[in-house]
Each structure stands twice: as structure tokens, then as C-alpha cells.
Amino acid sequence: MGAVTIYDVAERAGVSIKSVSRVLNGEQNVSVALRAKVQEAVDALGYRPSLSARSLAGSSSYLIAAFVDADLTIEHWRSGRGNDYLSRMELGALIEARNSGYHLMIELVDPGSPTLERDMSSVLGSLKPDGVILTPPISDASVVLDVLEARGTPYVRLGPETQLDRGRRVYMDERRAAFDMTVHLARLGHREIGFIVGNPRYAASRLRREGFEAAMAQHGLAVRDDWVLEGDFTFTSGFECGARMLAGAERPTAIFASNDDMAFGVLQAASRGGLAVPADLSLVGFDDTPSAQFSMPQLTTVRQPVAEMAETAARMLISAAQAKTDDGLERVHQAAYTLIARESSAPPRLARAARIPVGQG
Amino acid sequence: MGAVTIYDVAERAGVSIKSVSRVLNGEQNVSVALRAKVQEAVDALGYRPSLSARSLAGSSSYLIAAFVDADLTIEHWRSGRGNDYLSRMELGALIEARNSGYHLMIELVDPGSPTLERDMSSVLGSLKPDGVILTPPISDASVVLDVLEARGTPYVRLGPETQLDRGRRVYMDERRAAFDMTVHLARLGHREIGFIVGNPRYAASRLRREGFEAAMAQHGLAVRDDWVLEGDFTFTSGFECGARMLAGAERPTAIFASNDDMAFGVLQAASRGGLAVPADLSLVGFDDTPSAQFSMPQLTTVRQPVAEMAETAARMLISAAQAKTDDGLERVHQAAYTLIARESSAPPRLARAARIPVGQG
DNA sequence: TCCGGAAATGACAGCGCTGTCAATAGGATG
DNA sequence: CATCCTATTGACAGCGCTGTCATTTCCGGA
Hints:
Two copies of one chain form a homodimer.
Chain A: H1 6-13, H2 17-24, H3 32-45, H4 51-57, E1 63-69, H5 70-79, H6 84-99, E2 103-109, H7 116-127, E3 131-134, H8 142-151, E4 155-158, E5 168-172, H9 174-188, E6 193-197, H10 203-218, E7 228-230, H11 235-247, E8 254-257, H12 260-272, E9 282-284, E10 301-303, H13 306-322, E11 332-335, E12 338-340, H14 350-360
Parallel strand pairs in A: 1-2, 1-3, 3-4, 4-5, 5-11, 6-7, 6-8, 8-9
Antiparallel strand pairs in A: 10-12
Helix pairs in contact in A: 1-2, 1-3, 2-3, 6-13, 7-8, 9-10, 11-12
The first copy, chain A, binds a DNA duplex through residues 5-7, 15-19, 21-22, 25, 28-31, 34, 49-50, 52-59.
């Protein structure tokens, strides 16, 4: 059947298998004539080198592995819901890998497992990937970094928070994005702004909160404790926090939820409470999930270019795998975010906006 | 470093490498004592067999490949949006693969490419996967099936429409689901129901439409040509079709969109047209995308258990790879769908519902 | 014309496993 | 106790490539 080997190609081209190998790998010191002969044979036979043979014999496996949090994945699997971040990350990595003749493998990693170190060695040992992409929250699992470094496997961390000097990373300035979003609300005239924190397990939660607080401070706005509630990135938690925040006699004119899902929860709560968005309450999220453009009103949010980030990560790894030396390779890449102002944020109602100076004066 | 080989294990256990191999592969005729010795050594050394060596030497690669439509993927990638179907499919396949010690690889395939056959051989030749999962619309690409069959690689088709006798498949009864959904609307009292067809490229589009028509016929309801519009599964197309259908003096009391994204488009159109859902218009979709539970009103839709289906597919492939003979293996699996009635569907307003008999009497 | 060195090519030994087949060890049989 | 059969284990040859090192070829310069 299709089992064309390097021997067949060599025979047809009338050269040694080593020469075929040379042409295939674009090595130097190959004459034009040889290259042409081999190329012809390869094309005619439709030959493709066997991945396993290459990776067994040589030092590269043409494999990029993406490490994904197992818990999170299993949670998604249980609920039957997809994982938008994972999906976007993959698209980017997949496309870059494909363009460079690499393959992408997704591996689940449980950073809390007592056998983490062994599990990692296991995967790395059996796959021997040329590079590894770490997704949050694995990007910050120091044991994982340790193992990777011990084995000398290049890796790129997506959106890491701690130990920023280790390895390569591709990130977005979450703090600044949250800062900008807060400024967006302030510019609209909001002075009473609530915030819903994300799952503390994710670095992003802290950063987004810091950005919010910094912007509030800069604009001389008070951050009220009872208006900063802790969610966990789920719709439900958003609903609960929203309901709580909107229940009191005093309520904010705008709420900034640390991600879109929670924002939708708040939207639901507002709706049940008889509040119209953005008329009675401005609402902004973070992530630009697909739903953000379908919701009513459409949600103002921040778009993180996940696919691009993964693409960059894959490219960094592939260059690292192909370069002899580590010099001159990009190690840190900051991706640009976009604040997408849609319908859910607007100036506060005059009545409410006016109330503040009155109360203060 | 972590480079533990089978030789190390054999040495430590005081046996031959072949024996280690036997234990690892669970072969028969291995004494308890041997098994114990080897197991001890494996555990102590944290040994994992090299995937590439195994696949090079043996007949299995411990790899499952999922073939995904390249165009579609690139489209998603361009728009920066994730692909919910892909994501859910992957979760299922990933979890099953992981449980059985297999690995999952995603490969992009362009079924329209003139070099499709060669591309396929390429991938199959270099990866030598033990099984392949085909996702729509690749499930129906006969050239792909041809190549797979020629190579003798087991494959499972997810939701195929044509050539149902070829290969294995896991599917959902789309027609019946659409039928049920239509009945749902009819039972609520709707008699004037519009339908938005999906992208003709997908088999599901036709099936859903057939289900709709069959149910209408069974309930003695007329299918009006101007109330059956053709979209392409995108939000925008849903918006346009919705706007068109709702513009006329006569408009349906309910609209069934072939997928959720289009339903959201209709929702938007209805909203702009001053129509409240479900008060003035009942609206139902198909797919249960994440947004369906966050939208307002929450969308009535059909949930396809994509993750489960992929899980089943992976399991079928793994059993096929492990079985000596093909006998007794499951080849066809029908997955159960769920009609999720949420807020967007309700009885038509009395005024409108009453109008019909008046007009007819 | 001959020589040294760089450029181009080939020969060959594995990479870490599995498949095949041979060898050895126990048991049951007569 | 010899014989035969089966359960168990091992020896060894690759799988299809790449890395290393040897060999051949080709030039420019003496």
C-alpha cells in the first residue's frame, strides 16, 4: 500500500538513502542536481518520511505538545460544554504547526497531582516533543517548569504570572487591559463602579483586579468593599454577585466583571431585578467570548488574541527547535488586546450621575 | 536525564527486554513472578515506552487522529473565534484516549483540495494512526474514506449523511430531533412556523429541514415557501433571514432556526423590529451553543452530545485496534439528543392564535 | 601537472522497541 | 524414568530514519 520508504525514493533517484535524508531536511552541501533528482522521486512516489522513524533516529520529533489543565478539561467535559480558550489556542497552534510541518498534540496535565513530576516525565519521555506550550494555569506550575528544564525541552508559557524570568512566554497585559476598561467606564461618567473578581486560581484574576483598582485610584474614585465581590469565572457566580451587588439601596452605576460569563450572570441578575442595561446599569466583561456579540445588549469587553498568541508560541518553539544556538531567539512576546465597546456600556443616567455631587456637597 | 529505556528496566528486573515488553503490552503467558518483577522496576524507574520506537517497530502507533475541515478551521482562526463543536469533540476524544493510553492528534484536511488523496496518504503515512475520527463535513468525503479503506486504517465518521454503509459511525438522529422541536412548537399552539435552513454544505441542514417538514405535515400545518429561508449557519445570515421573514404584514408566530447562531441573529432582528421573544415570537435553535443559556431570553434548543459522541468514536477505534478480528465490534452508534426547552418558546399570543380560525372560517 | 582542502556523497551503526522463532522449563503421560 | 506437550522466556533481526565518519569529487594554487 502507501508504504513508501526512503529506500524506494533512494532507489528511484539512484542515490543513497542518506542523500535523500539530506534533501528532505534541507541540509547544506547538497548539489542542485542531487536535490532535483530526489525531489522528483519524492513527488512521483508521494513519499512522506515516517514521523516515528525520524523521531526515533534523530533528535527532533516534529511534535509540539500543548499542556492543558486536566481538571478544567474534565469539568468542561462533564458539563458537555466546549472550552473556548482551548479551542482558540489550538487553532492558532495548529495552523502554525501545519505550516511548518509539525504536529500538535494535546496533553492533559493535573498540576495538583502528587505524581505530577512522574506524569510529566512520562509524557515527555514517550512523546519527546520538540517544544511544549503551557496554558494557564499550568503556565505557573513550577514543578512543570522544573521538569521541562531538566529535560532541556523548550517551552512557552501562555499568560504566566509568576517567575516571569523562566522560559519563554507570550502574554497580554491583563492589568493594563483592565485598567483601560475601567477608564472607559470612568470616561463615560461612572463614578460608582462595582467589580467582580475571577477565580483566584488564575493569575489573571489578580491582575485584572489590580488594573481596576489602579484606574479607580487614578481617577479619584473610591473602591467600595461591598462592591468588589469574588466570583469564580462562572455564569452562576456572576449571577450571585450581581444579585448581591444590585440588591442594596445603594448600587453601582456600572459593573466590571472579570470575564464575560460572569458578566452574563450579572446581566441576568439585573434583568430579574428590573434593571435595564445599559440604561440603568453599565456592564462590561473580559474575554470576548462568542456570546458577547450575540447577547442583548451586546457586551462591551476586552478581546484577548488567544489564537495569535498560540501561533506565536508555536513559532517560537519551532524556531528554537531548528536553531542550533539559543541566541537571538525571541523569549518574550507581548500580544495586543482590544477593548471592544459595544452596547452594554453607556453614560450613567443623569439622575444618578447628578446624585453623587449632591450627596458629596 | 529521564531517558529511561527498556534496557534499564530489563537490567534492573534481571530479565530480557522482550519480557519487559510482554508485561507492558499485557501479553499472555507471562508468569506472575515475572510480571511483578518488571512492574516493580518500571515503577521504580518511572519508565515509559517511547511512542516512536513502539510505532516504528510494532504494528500500532497508539495514536488516534481527528480529521477536521481545514477551511472551516481557518475561517474560525481568521475571525479569532473558537470552534465549539471542535472543542467538545476533542474533549471527548481526549478523555477516552487518555484513559486508554492513546494520544490524540488533530489534523486539518481540505476536502476540496485537488491533492486531497496525496495529502491524506501523507498524513497517514507519516503518522500511521491506529484510527481516525472524521468530523463533519469530512465524514462525507468519499475520497477520504477511499484512502482510509485502501490503507486499512479503521475510522469512525461523526454524523455522516451519505454512504451510511461505509465504515463505522456515530450519529444523532437530526431529522427526528428537528421533528421533535417542530412538534414542540406545534404543541405550544403555533400554526404559522417559519424555518431557516442551514449551510447546504452540511448534511445536517437537509436532515433538519426534512424533520421540520415532516412534523409540519403530520400536524396538518402548511409550510410556506416565503417562510423557509436559506441561511448558512452564521449569525448574520440568521439576522437577514429573520429580518426578511418578520418584515411582511403576515409573519410567523414562531421561527425554527437550524442552529443557535442563526437563532441569535433572528433574535436580534426581532428585537430591532420591536418584537419581544417569546411574547410576540417564539424562537428555537439547534446545537445548544454556550450562548444559548446566557441569552435573553434563554434559547430553546437541541443539545447534541458531541463530547460523548467523540468519546464513543475513540472507544470504537481503540477496541478495533486492540481486537484481532473485526467481528463483534460496534460499527454504528446512535447518540441521544435532548430537547432543551428554555424561555424563548411559549404559546403564541391569544390574539394571533385566534386570528387563524377567524381567517379560515 | 600535482597537491591540499573544501564540497558532496555514501557506508554503516544504531535509536528503542516488537515480531518471530528458538530454547528452556515444567508437567502430565505411559 | 523417558517422552511429549505446553507454558514461559530469551536471542536476534529488523522497523525507517539520522548521526558520524569515511570516501570520493572537484577546485584553485604551487
